[in-house]
Specification:
The structure holds three protein chains of three kinds. By secondary structure, chain B is an alpha/beta fold. Chain B has ten helices and ten strands. In chain B, a hairpin with a 2-residue loop joins strand 9 and strand 10. The two termini of chain B are about 20 Å apart. Classes of the chains: A alpha+beta, B alpha/beta, C alpha/beta. Chains in contact: A-C, B-C. At the A-C interface, helix 1, helix 5, helix 12 and helix 13 of A face helix 3 and strand 11 of C.
């Protein structure tokens, strides 16, 4: 006698217990603590903070540990936690031309006021697996970093002084928040940038890359890539002046793109912008390319390539949404499948009848 | 040219006054005015860039003019200002009482559904809900535009250019429109295919008593189809009148140039 | 009542968010079948797994409610269990597997066989709310099509089905017109269940979390499945009866019993089936 499948509840509990044991691995090996993750897997923490939309290395480290290093899963954990947090205040815009510059590269001028600062980077490392690292190499001696550079004006601002680059495109005075209000198309630039900053790094990287290969080519130059510690300030209502509440590290990219111009506007370079938490210039640069591509409508360019298609880009950028929906296919669908089976059997029977009748 | 219909009984179907279309600072067409009577075919001729397509786009409510009025006599006899109508009413007009035949059939057909669905779509859009009747109409119209009825379930992507154009015409005429706009309907077709299509259009327009506005750079097409002509240049109408009169005795130097350069080949 | 999760509000969402969602629900009820955008929150369950339904349930549930959660008609499928547990943990409300006892029934892919009554609320989990999505991927365009009731393209699709297959080949998530006005997706229920939507005494709420839309069919509202006069809407039927309870009128799951073509059919609605055998 057939008995309907039961015991789902027990199976779920058992599955989660199994997961917890697998996560720990061999108990004889010391467990990772969150400080180790936050300090030694810093790039992973940065990505999880950016796409998880919370600047908190400890929480990101916990999410990474809980997700067993699955970063999209860790981002999901952080996002779900984020929703429950109260919104206490909105910060003032951060001033990326102030604060400690950790790294700063301009590809458009040989030298710039404030200087080129290589900083810590994978660039120019030869990608040779370092077996000595596996064995526990001693650290290099402390590196003499130059004095904190003084004034380091942004390259885009210097171009702007001569009118060589367009002024920053206008946005809504008070930017929207797509975690509170559903995005409405066409979306303004602030919302687009919010979407891209939270968007999946791989998605942006592929789309940005596609613009370089001719799908919405916009002739980018890396005007400036800057990794900087900036102060975050809020203006409490009762005080009426800004108060610093902390400091965050951000990676910022200003792309200088193909110039436009018309009968009324003199030719000038156009802008693409990217900003992410921590150190991820790959994502900041990709974001700047996609931002520029998405400005096609505003700049009167034909919209022909995927990276220019606002609904396409913004609707599919979120890896928490994408991961959930792709994987929901593993949930049971047998009721709908039964409907399809029923139909297909009928159609096949009718097909056979017609064939027999024809013979 | 077909015989000119009697114009004295009925009021005009379409009245256009002072129509100007602008794209920013650039003017598409300037201060165009005319009247179109039921059953009349108006040809708009001129070289590319003369403003004839801008005019057609404004007339068919595709773009909003910068100035001027377009009034259309609805089926109930009232004259309605096209841009005073709600978008819903305008779209309704476009898929029932009007037809638009595009130069490129790809702009006017759904290439991913069958020929039958292409013809039936406008019927379904206005509420037809009987499959057999919709299919019947589609078969009927395929016959009228000389497409083999066996092709009803084929997709138009497998049709020749001439067949696609005829399918587009059937798709537009299935709701018995009173006014049809055609943009270079024979453009891009072989000469022999053009001749057959022109014959078909001429026959349908006469049989159905359609009013039509046909934009073309081809004076031979204009002579064959149009009762009346407007010659455009640089966004303005430089000459208008009965087709034979304009073509046989052009007054404006530009029309003279057009006629001499094309007809004397 | 079980101990609820420390540190979280009743039914997880904060009260501000619940109010925002309830406003969206009220608007949805006022305009039957119309998709109301709402500020969907990021839930601790994955998108596509019922986040819309969960937010709707969380916003309307009270301590006195009795919750039933089904997936594929069954109470004991893993995702149904997971969602029921979520509310048991975060709201501590009573849960049930009995359709007649429930005040709120959250569902994925089925409507119970037991007729619903006035006062009950159905909450449907919706993956894609837009019925025109496969015809027109752009939100900007589909909004206009809804505003102007331009639904002819849907019939074009059905016309094609009949022309090529002799019948309409949509079997689930079968589009309906609500209250003679809005075209609506009933969520991926089999078309067998479409008839239960029409003039139902229960309030029916639809939540799409990832797509950030809520829509509703108020009690006793006309819900018409699209069709042609000469190809009227029809539903699945089986030659078999349920092997467990013998029902010939309920929706049946096909179960493969061996790899030699052996199969049997049982009710998809486990509560209905059990109520007929016990």
């Amino acid at each position: 006698m057939y008995v309907a499948v039961k015991g789902g509840e027990k199976a779920i509990d058992a599955a989660h217990a199994l997961l917890a044991r697998e996560r720990r691995g061999d108990p004889a090996v010391p467990a990772l603590d969150l400080t180790q993750i936050a300090q030694q897997l810093g790039r992973a923490v940065d990505r999880v903070m950016t796409e998880g939309s919370i600047y908190d290395p400890e929480l990101a480290a916990l999410a990474i540990k809980q997700a067993m290093g699955d970063l999209v899963e860790a981002i999901f954990l952080l996002r779900a936690y984020r929703t429950t947090l109260p919104r206490l205040a909105a910060s003032q815009p951060v001033e990326t031309d102030r604060g400690l510059v950790r790294r700063r590269i301009s590809a458009v001028f040989k030298d710039v006021p404030g200087g080129q600062v290589l900083g810590s980077t994978f660039d120019y490392t030869h990608r040779l697996l370092d077996f000595a690292l596996a064995a526990g190499t001693p650290l290099p001696d402390p590196v003499a970093t130059s004095e904190p550079i003084g004034a380091a004006p942004r390259v885009a601002d210097m171009l702007g002084r001569d009118g060589l680059i367009e002024p920053p495109p206008p946005g809504d005075a008070v930017p929207g928040d797509l975690t509170r209000q559903p995005i409405d198309f066409p979306a303004d630039r602030a919302l687009r940038l919010q979407n891209l900053a939270r968007g999946d790094e791989g998605w942006l990287l592929a789309l940005g890359y596609s613009t370089q290969r001719g799908y919405a080519r916009n002739h980018p130059f890396a005007g400036e890539i800057r990794i900087v510690d900036v102060a975050v300030e809020i203006v409490p209502e009762e005080l009426g002046f800004p108060v610093e509440i902390g400091e965050i590290t951000v990676s910022e990219c200003d792309m200088v793109n193909q110039f436009g111009g018309s009968a009324t506007a003199a030719p000038a370079f156009t802008r693409g912008y990217g900003l992410v938490f921590g150190q991820s210039e790959r994502k900041a640069m990709a974001m700047a390319l996609v931002d520029r591509a998405l400005r096609a409508r505003e700049l009167g360019e034909p919209i022909a390539a995927p990276a220019q298609d606002e609904e396409f880009v913004l609707s599919h950028s979120d890896n928490v949404e994408a991961s959930g929906f792709v994987q929901h296919l593993k949930l049971p669908h047998h009721v709908d499948f039964q409907s399809e089976l029923d139909l297909l059997r009928r159609l096949r029977a009718e097909h056979d009848q017609r064939k027999t009748a024809a013979e | 040219m077909s015989a000119l219909p009697l114009l004295d009984e009925e009021p005009p179907l379409l009245v256009v006054e002072g129509l100007t279309v602008a794209y920013g600072a650039r003017v598409g067409c300037r201060d165009v005015g005319f009247e179109l009577w039921p059953g009349e075919v108006l040809g708009i001729v001129g070289e590319s860039g003369s403003g004839k397509t801008s005019l057609l786009n404004a007339l068919s409510a595709k773009i909003e003019p910068a100035a001027g009025r377009i009034r259309y006599r609805l089926r109930d006899g009232t004259m309605a200002d096209l841009f005073d109508l709600s978008e819903a009413a305008r779209r309704q007009l476009l898929r029932t009482d009007w037809g638009v035949v595009h130069q490129n059939p790809r702009d006017g057909l759904r290439l991913t559904v069958s020929a039958g669905a292409n013809v039936g779509e406008r019927l379904m859009a206005i509420g037809a809900r009987h499959y057999g009747e919709i299919r019947g109409s589609a078969l009927d119209w395929l016959g009228k535009v000389e497409i083999d009825r066996d092709r009803i379930d084929d997709r138009p992507s497998s049709f020749s250019g001439g067949m696609q154009q005829r399918l587009q015409i059937a798709r537009n005429l299935v709701t018995n429109p009173r006014l049809v706009f055609m943009d270079e309907p024979t453009g891009g077709l072989d000469v022999s295919v053009q001749a057959r299509l022109l014959d078909l259009i001429r026959g349908l327009v006469a049989d159905l008593g359609l009013s039509a506005i046909i934009v073309t750079h081809d004076l031979a097409v204009a002579r064959l189809l149009a009762h009346r002509l407007m010659v455009m240049r640089g966004g303005e109408v430089v000459e208008s009148g009965l087709t034979d009169q304009v073509l046989d005795d052009p007054q404006h130097p530009y029309t003279q140039l057009l006629v001499s350069s094309i007809l004397q080949v | 009542m079980t101990q609820t999760l420390a540190g979280y509000n009743f039914a997880y969402l904060d009260e501000q968010t619940k109010r925002m969602i309830r406003r969206a629900i009220l608007k949805a009820v006022a305009i039957p079948g119309y998709q109301v955008p709402f500020g969907s929150r990021e839930m601790p369950l994955p998108y596509g797994w019922g986040t819309g339904g969960i937010q709707v349930t969380a916003s309307i549930i009270g301590r006195a409610d009795v919750l039933k959660v089904i997936d594929q008609g069954a109470d004991d499928t893993t995702n149904a269990i997971s969602i029921r547990r979520f509310f048991a943990r975060t709201a501590g409300v009573a849960t049930t597997e009995r359709t007649v006892e429930a005040t709120i029934i959250q569902t994925r892919h089925r409507i119970p066989e037991t007729p619903l009554r006035a006062g009950q609320i159905m909450v449907y989990q919706v993956p894609i709310p837009e019925p025109l999505r496969w015809l027109e991927p752009r939100e900007t365009e589909t909004r206009t099509m809804h505003a102007l009731s331009e639904y002819g393209a849907m019939h074009v699709r059905f016309y094609e089905d009949i022309a090529h297959h002799g019948r309409i080949t949509t079997t689930y998530d079968y589009p309906v017109i609500v209250n003679d006005r809005y075209l609506m997706r009933p969520s991926p229920i089999p078309k067998f269940d479409n008839q239960k939507l029409d003039m139902s005494p229960a309030l029916q709420l639809f939540g799409a979390g990832r797509e950030k839309r809520i829509y509703a069919v108020p009690p006793f509202t006309k819900v018409k499945s699209l069709d042609f006069h000469d190809h009227p809407f029809s539903v699945e039927s089986w030659d078999a009866a349920c092997s467990l309870c013998g029902s010939t009128t309920s929706y049946l799951d096909e179960v493969l019993t061996d790899d030699q073509g052996g199969r049997m059919f049982v009710c998809s609605d486990t509560d209905y089936c059990r109520s007929r055998t016990s």
